[in-house]
Amino acid sequence: MEQKIIDLLKRSSLSITDSRKKILESFFQENSALAHADIEDYVGEDFDRVTIYRTLQTFVDKGIIHTIPTPDNAVLYALCKDSCSAGHHHDNHVHFICDNCNKTFCLEHVVVPTVHMPVGFAASQIDMVVSGICNYCNATT
Amino acid sequence: MEQKIIDLLKRSSLSITDSRKKILESFFQENSALAHADIEDYVGEDFDRVTIYRTLQTFVDKGIIHTIPTPDNAVLYALCKDSCSAGHHHDNHVHFICDNCNKTFCLEHVVVPTVHMPVGFAASQIDMVVSGICNYCNATT
DNA sequence: AACATTTTGCAACATAGTTGCAATAGTGTA
DNA sequence: TACACTATTGCAACTATGTTGCAAAATGTT
Ligand SMILES: [Zn+2]
Ligand SMILES: [Zn+2]
Ligand SMILES: [Zn+2]
Ligand SMILES: [Zn+2]
After folding, report:
1. To probe the interface with A, which of B31, B36, B73 has the most A CB atoms within 10 Å?
2. What is this structure's pTM?
3. What percent of chain B has pLDDT above 90?
4. What are the pLDDT digits (tens) for B3-61?
5. How far is CA B140 from CA A52, A119, A123, B97, B135, in A?
6. How far, in Å, is the CA of B124 from the C1' of nucleotide C12?
7. Where are the domains of chain B?
8. Which of A120, A127, A138 sits opposite B129 (nearest CB)?
9. Minimum-distance CB partner of B125 among A69, A121, A131
10. Four-way CATH pick for B2-140: 3.90.1700.10, 1.10.10.10, 1.10.510.10, 2.40.10.10
């Protein structure tokens, strides 16, 4: 894991720092999307709030993580797949929010469908967020 | 307009107050979605910030307005159509955010498409937000 | 090891949203 | 219309969230 994280940072031409390693670790540890507060909990007292904000912004810029819009307007982040790079995200998958466990997942294999726009409107990006019960919660209740 | 607003409040069994009338007026005046700050600008010094928050929450509860999730996590509100009622919203239309004029619109006639979920996931609500250039901006540039 | 460049922590600030409570306004009834 | 009851509002204080400037510390390069 340590090596995987270092490689990812090098590939993105970012210097290897303790905070970046720890924050990336939190994403690899969890398989769901994380809010700023989740990461703050994970890293504990080790790093300043401001450092986390700036690191997340850096990761978004470099194509390492992407943000997820949610109906309740919390900011969530999740790892990108390899196809994303600095300045160019290609995360056109559906996001799923579980109403039971409250976790958010990238449905990597569910592509956002296109939709027919009214005359005059030109679409450049489409976000789709589905709420419901996730597979884990469905299996255990 | 005054009468239309009063009827809407009565139909929702809400008492008729100056702040509710003024805030509803702002929605009928604009044809796009509004953020809390927009409404604060519209009503000026007449009402407290807290009153606006509480009034918007009441309107959402009563099925008069609905919230719109946005990629940049701003909270937006827009008028519902008649089919919404207290506790039951049916705003299953696509929302459009213009990258140029920065306004957000309800595309009332564009229904959110269904999408096939992976095994184990049960969808109960789907939000779709499209970004691009709106018809007004396309016509004037 | 020494240097130049990034990154971090701190403090201070800005904005957004919430809560409790007393004062006020609205509604229904006499 | 006046009264009493209830709902709404304003204020103050508070929490949460996010940003900025700058000096100190860490990183990468020679
Ligand atoms: Zn991405
Ligand atoms: Zn995703
Ligand atoms: Zn509605
Ligand atoms: Zn809408």
Report:
1. B73
2. 0.90
3. 82
4. 999 999 999 999 999 999 999 999 999 889 999 999 999 998 889 999 999 999 999 99
5. 42, 14, 17, 17, 9
6. 45
7. 2-140
8. A127
9. A131
10. 1.10.10.10
